[in-house]
Write a structure and sequence with these properties.
heterotrimer, A mainly alpha (219), B mainly alpha (213), C alpha/beta (286), A: 219 residues, 3 domains, two-stranded antiparallel sheet, 7 helices, C: 286 residues, alpha/beta, Rossmann fold, six-stranded parallel β-sheet, transmembrane (chain B), transmembrane helix (chain B)
C-alpha cells in the first residue's frame, strides 16, 4: 500500500500528462485543464508550505542544538516571520489590515523586496565576476590543442560582443556570430540529443514504476 | 556628488557592502546578509502563495463559492504537511506521485517534438535549410559543417565502442566542435558576470552616492 | 623574470581591485558606444512590430535580482516598443522572485509614457493597454493552461482584480489571441515556452536571455523555434538602439550606458588570461 498506491498514481497521472498532446478532443482538454488548474496548482502551493516548514525546522533545530553559526539562524527566522507577517496582513499593495507605513516611511512587502531582496540577490551574483576574473588569471592555461581552440573561440566571442571588437574589425562580430551559429549549435545540439533521449528514458521508467528512487526510504 | 537621504537606499547600499565584504574573507556581515536574504525572500514567497494562489484558487472557490469538490485538492495538498508526522509520513508520496506523474508524462511529447524532431529538421541537409542562413551559396557549406558537427559530437559521446578507426576520426572532429562551443559559452559567461557587477556599481554610484545619473 | 615571478603569485585581491576600477571608471566618465544590431535582435523587433491589431504581446518577465542588470534593460526596451506602437501587452512571471522586478519595469515605462502624454488618448492605461497577470505555480499551469483559457489560469491579476473584468482581456481568451510570447529569463524558461506552449498550441516564441545560457539556447533560434533572440547586456543594448532609432522613443538606456564598462572589463580579462599564460610558460621553462 505504502509503495503500490503512489506507483499506481504516478502511472495514471503520467498517462494523463501524455494523452492530451495526441488527443486534442475538447472534453478531454477540459479535464486536463481541470487537473492542472484545480489540482496540481493547489498541490504545488502546499509543497511550498512544506518547503518553508522544513526550512524553519532546520533552523530551529540549529538554534536548539547550538550548531555552527546558529545565531544567524535567528536572523533568517526573524526575517521570514517579519516579512511574512507584513506580507500576509499588510497585503501585497500595502492595502491589508496591517498599516505598512509610518508618515512617509513605507515598509510594505514590495518595499522590502526592492530594498532588501534585490540588492542582496544581485550582489551575491555580482561577486562571481571577481571570482571569474581571478580564475581566468590563475587557472585558464593553454596546455593542449583543445584548450587552445577553446581559448581562441572565447577571445573571438568576448571581443565580438563588445563595441570595441567592431572598432578593431567589423568582421569580428560577424565571426563571433558565425561561431554561435555553427560550431556552437553543432556541439550543443549533439549534447541536447543525448540529454533529451536520457530524459525520455527516465520519464518512461518513472511512469512504468521501474525508477522508484523518488519514493525515498525503504518502507 | 549628491548622496541620498532615502533610508531604504542606504539599507540597500549597506547590505550590498555586507555581501561585497566576502571578497576580503568570510565574515559576520556577509553571514548576516546571507541569512537575511533567505528569510525575507521566503516571507515574500509565502505572501504571494497565500494571497494569489491559495486564496483565489482554493479558499474562495471552496469556502465562498461552495464548490465542494475542492475538498479533494485541499485533502491531498494537506498530505504534504503529514511529512512532519513520522507514523503517517509515507502519505506525502501521494501528492508527490500526482505531481511527478503529470510532469513526467507531459514532458515526453514536449521533448520529442521540441528537442528531437525540430532539432533534426533544422540539422538535415535540405534546400530549405540551405536558404535559412541567408548566405547565398555559402548556405550549403554552413549546413554541411553543422550536419558534420552534430554527427561528430554525437559520435564523441558514443561509448559502446572504442574510439578507433572511423569512430576515432569522427570523435576527434567532435572534440573540436565541443571545444569551440565551450569557448563560446565561456566568452558569453564573462559578459554575464561582468554585467551583474556593472549593475551593482550603477546602483552604488547612481541612486546611493549620486555620482552618475 | 622577476616580474613574471611576481605576476605568478599575484594576490587575488589585486585582481579584484583592478576589475572594480575598470568597471567603475567608464561609468563615471562615459563615452558614446555605438552598437551594431545583429540578426537575432533584428528578427525579434520585426516579429513584435508585425503583431496585428487583434492580437497582443505576451511578456514573461522571469528575471530575478540575480540577473536583473542584464535583463531589466530588455524588459524596459520591449515595453517601450509595445507602448509606442500601441500593442496591447500582458505581463506574467513563471516564478515568484521576478514579480517585483516585472512590476518595477511596468511602472517605470508606463510612467515614462504617461508623463509625456499631452492628451488623455496618449496615456497608457492599466486594464486597457496592459495587464499584469502576476504569478501562478507550477510553471506547467500557465504554459499549457493559457492555450485553453488565460482567465482560468489567472482568475485574478497581480493587484487582485478579476482578470475577466479588465477591458483588454474581454477579447483575449487564449494563445490564439497572442501574437508572440517573449520570455525574458535568467534560466531555461524560454525552452519551456517552446516545448510546451509552442509544440501544442503553435504560438510564436521570442526570448531575451542571460548570456550564461546563450550557448545552450542559441540552437532554438537557429532552428526557428525562437522567432528572435536577445543575448545579455549586448542584446539589450541592440534592442535599445533599435527602439530609439526606429521609433524615436527617448528614455534612459541602461544597457547602452554599460557598454563602456563591458569593453574595459572584457579587455582586462583577456589581458589577465594572456599574462597568466605567459607567467605559466615562463615558470615551466625554468
Amino acid at each position: 500500500m505504502k509503495r503500490t498506491l503512489p506507483l499506481i498514481l504516478v502511472f495514471i497521472f503520467g498517462i494523463m500528462g501524455i494523452v492530451p498532446y495526441y488527443i486534442p478532443h475538447g472534453g478531454y482538454q477540459t479535464l486536463d485543464n481541470m487537473v492542472r488548474n484545480d489540482f496540481l496548482r493547489i498541490l504545488s502551493a502546499f509543497a511550498i508550505v512544506l518547503g518553508l516548514g522544513s526550512l524553519m525546522k532546520v533552523h530551529i533545530d540549529k538554534i536548539k542544538k547550538h550548531r555552527e553559526n546558529w545565531p544567524y539562524s535567528y536572523v533568517l527566522i526573524i526575517g521570514f516571520v517579519v516579512s511574512g507577517f507584513i506580507g500576509l496582513f499588510g497585503g501585497i499593495e500595502g492595502n491589508g489590515m496591517l498599516p505598512t507605513s509610518i508618515a512617509s516611511f513605507k515598509f510594505d512587502i514590495e518595499t522590502l523586496y526592492l530594498n532588501i531582496i534585490v540588492p542582496l540577490g544581485s550582489t551575491m551574483f555580482a561577486l562571481l565576476a571577481f571570482f571569474m576574473a581571478s580564475a581566468s588569471y590563475r587557472a585558464f592555461r593553454v596546455r593542449s590543442l583543445e584548450s587552445a581552440l577553446l581559448l581562441s573561440a572565447a577571445f573571438i566571442v568576448m571581443l565580438g560582443v563588445i563595441p570595441l571588437g567592431d572598432r578593431i574589425s567589423p568582421h569580428l562580430p560577424t565571426f563571433a556570430q558565425w561561431i554561435m551559429d555553427i560550431p556552437n549549435v553543432a556541439s550543443k545540439r549533439g549534447i541536447t540529443f543525448g540529454i533529451a533521449l536520457g530524459g525520455l528514458a527516465t520519464s518512461l521508467k518513472v511512469i512504468l514504476g521501474i525508477e522508484r528512487s523518488w519514493l525515498g526510504g525503504k518502507e | 556628488m549628491n548622496i541620498t537621504s532615502d533610508p531604504w537606499i542606504w539599507i540597500g547600499g549597506l547590505l550590498t557592502l555586507c555581501i561585497f565584504s566576502f571578497l576580503y574573507k568570510d565574515n559576520p556581515f556577509y553571514k548576516f546578509a546571507e541569512h537575511l536574504f533567505v528569510g525575507v525572500a521566503n516571507g515574500y514567497f509565502l505572501t504571494f502563495t497565500v494571497h494569489r494562489v491559495l486564496g483565489p484558487n482554493l479558499f474562495v472557490p471552496l469556502f465562498v463559492q461552495g464548490r465542494i469538490w475542492y475538498v479533494i485538492s485541499l485533502t491531498v495538498g494537506m498530505l504534504y504537511i503529514l511529512r512532519f508526522v513520522p507514523r503517517v509520513s509515507w502519505l506525502v508520496r501521494i501528492p508527490i506521485a500526482v505531481t511527478i506523474g503529470y510532469y513526467t508524462g507531459a514532458v515526453i511529447p514536449a521533448t520529442i517534438q521540441a528537442d528531437i524532431i525540430r532539432q533534426i529538421q533544422a540539422t538535415i541537409l535540405t534546400p530549405q535549410n540551405f536558404q535559412s542562413w541567408n548566405a547565398g551559396s555559402s548556405g550549403i557549406i554552413w549546413s554541411v559543417i553543422l550536419f558534420v558537427g552534430v554527427a561528430c559530437t554525437l559520435s564523441y559521446f558514443y561509448f559502446s565502442r572504442e574510439h578507433k578507426g572511423v569512430l576515432g576520426v569522427t570523435s576527434k572532429i567532435g572534440v573540436i566542435f565541443i571545444m569551440v562551443g565551450f569557448g563560446a559559452a565561456f566568452g558569453y559567461t564573462v559578459m554575464a558576470r561582468v554585467s551583474l557587477l556593472i549593475g551593482r556599481f550603477q546602483f552604488i554610484l547612481g541612486p546611493w552616492f549620486g555620482i552618475i545619473e | 623574470m622577476k616580474i613574471l615571478e611576481y605576476l605568478s603569485t599575484l594576490d587575488r585581491r589585486i585582481i579584484y581591485l583592478v576589475l572594480a576600477i575598470v568597471v567603475i571608471l567608464p561609468l563615471i566618465f562615459p563615452s558614446i558606444q555605438r552598437v551594431r544590431v545583429m540578426d537575432p535582435v533584428g528578427k525579434l523587433f520585426a516579429a513584435i512590430d508585425a503583431i496585428p491589431d487583434e492580437q497582443i504581446l505576451m511578456l514573461d518577465f522571469d528575471y530575478d535580482p540575480q540577473t536583473q542588470p542584464e535583463l531589466e534593460p530588455m524588459a524596459v526596451a520591449l515595453l517601450r516598443h509595445a507602448f509606442n506602437r500601441r500593442i496591447k501587452v500582458a505581463v506574467l512571471s513563471l516564478y515568484v522572485q521576478p514579480l517585483g522586478l516585472a512590476k518595477k519595469a511596468l511602472d517605470q515605462v508606463a510612467e515614462e509614457f504617461n508623463s509625456q502624454a499631452k492628451i488623455r488618448a496618449d496615456s497608457i492605461v492599466y486594464g486597457q493597454d496592459y495587464v499584469f497577470l502576476g504569478w501562478q505555480p507550477p510553471p506547467i499551469v500557465p504554459l499549457l493552461g493559457m492555450g485553453i483559457s488565460i482567465a482560468e489560469v489567472y482568475p485574478r491579476d497581480y493587484y487582485g482584480l478579476r482578470t475577466d473584468s479588465l477591458p483588454m482581456m474581454h477579447k483575449v481568451r487564449n494563445f490564439n489571441d497572442v501574437g508572440i510570447i517573449v520570455c525574458v529569463s535568467g534560466g531555461n524558461a524560454p525552452i519551456w515556452w517552446v516545448a510546451y506552449s509552442q509544440t501544442r498550441f503553435g504560438v510564436a516564441v521570442g526570448a531575451g536571455i542571460t548570456s550564461v545560457y546563450a550557448s545552450e539556447l542559441y540552437q532554438y533560434f537557429q532552428s526557428g523555434q525562437f522567432s528572435g533572440l536577445m543575448i545579455g547586456m549586448k542584446g539589450a543594448a541592440e534592442y535599445e538602439e533599435t527602439v530609439a532609432s526606429s521609433l524615436r522613443v527617448s528614455g534612459r538606456r541602461k544597457a547602452t550606458e554599460a557598454l563602456g564598462s563591458l569593453n574595459a572589463a572584457h579587455l582586462t580579462i583577456i589581458i589577465f588570461i594572456i599574462i597568466g599564460n605567459i607567467s605559466f610558460v615562463a615558470r615551466r621553462r625554468k
